[in-house]
Write a structure and sequence with these properties.
- By secondary structure, the chain is α/β, with parallel strands linked by helices.
- It folds into 3 domains: 98 residues, P-loop containing nucleotide triphosphate hydrolases (Rossmann fold), CATH 3.40.50; 103 residues, Rossmann fold; 62 residues, no CATH class.
- It is built from 13 helices and 10 strands.
- InterPro entries: AAA_GajA/Old/RecF-like, Bact_Antivir_Def_Nuclease, P-loop_NTPase.
- This is Endonuclease GajA/Old nuclease/RecF-like AAA domain-containing protein.
Length: 279
């Protein structure tokens, strides 16, 4: 018998001997256990609570133990300098991601292109940076028979979601603004009614940032890109500023995020949290 098994056997004997409705404090009971045993320990504790009506408070660093417990029972303690903040009701996958400082992502969120990725990143960063650390925002790409990678927007997202979901990956999608939301399949959309680059270019804060930072006249830019595809907007700004398109979009997205109502962004964040917490 291993050290971990011996400790747990002793712990279970003591727990079973305690009178009903006891208050039990456990500090990292999973130490030295195999991950599968950590999960089973959590299930045992739930069974014990139900049978004997105990109240159990435990601390853990085990993502497997976390995943065996109801999300409503979890409280994550986040340290920020000398202060400690309690985050109640956090999902097991989010808690596991925070414990690993974002290395173990709770959710993969698919978007249509780099512009959408920048916009979604900056919106979440502004309103809930802790949640941003628990998710991976990825562009849906498909590889054709020729081997060429083709980015094909919402159609690629739907096909990629189907393929990766079958592989067991926890997914959600955020389409461009104005697209149809399918909450049951965890498909949402960005604020606005137009593609991200168009939304950025018409946003007052983003326009002001472009004018003040790069000394450009918006009227001149509008004349240059009139009638062009939305993807040409920031290419044109890049030609005038000698900056990479992706960098300019990131800067514009940061300015744009300041103007979007918190309630609208938080509603999207809550839907993504629900997607990450589903069993």
């Amino acid at each position: 018998m291993g050290c971990g098994e011996g400790r747990i056997q002793c712990l279970i004997q003591r727990l079973e001997a305690m009178p009903p409705r006891s208050l039990i404090l456990l500090e990292e009971p999973e130490i030295s256990l195999h991950p599968s045993a950590e999960y089973e320990l959590g299930k045992y504790i739930l069974d014990l609570v139900e049978r004997k009506r105990h109240q159990v408070l435990l601390t853990t660093h085990s993502s497997m133990l976390l995943r065996s417990l109801p999300d409503a029972s979890l409280v994550f303690l986040a340290r920020n300098g000398e202060a400690i903040t309690a985050l109640p009701g956090i999902g097991a996958r989010q808690a596991a991601s925070l414990l690993t400082e974002g290395h173990d992502k709770a959710l993969t969120v698919l978007v249509e292109d780099e512009s959408a990725k920048s916009v979604l990143t900056e919106l979440i960063r502004r309103h809930n940076p802790d949640f941003l650390a628990t998710i991976h925002i990825a562009i849906a790409r498909e590889r054709r028979e020729s081997g060429r990678i083709d980015e094909s927007g919402k159609d690629a997202i739907r096909r990629t979601m189907k393929t990766l979901s079958e592989a067991g990956l926890k997914l959600a999608a955020v389409l461009d603004g104005g697209e149809t939301v399918d909450a049951q399949r965890y498909i949402f959309c960005l604020p606005g009614r137009e593609p991200p680059e168009s939304e950025l270019f018409k946003n007052p804060s983003a326009r002001r940032m472009i004018e003040e930072t790069y000394r450009l006249k918006i009227e001149d830019l509008e004349a240059e890109v009139a009638g062009a595809d939305c993807h040409e907007i920031f290419k044109a700004i890049g030609r005038r500023t000698s900056c990479e398109k992706e960098f300019l979009i990131q800067e514009a997205a940061r300015a744009y995020a300041r103007d979007i109502p918190a309630a609208e962004v938080n509603r999207l964040i809550e839907m993504l949290k629900e997607a990450s917490q589903r069993r």
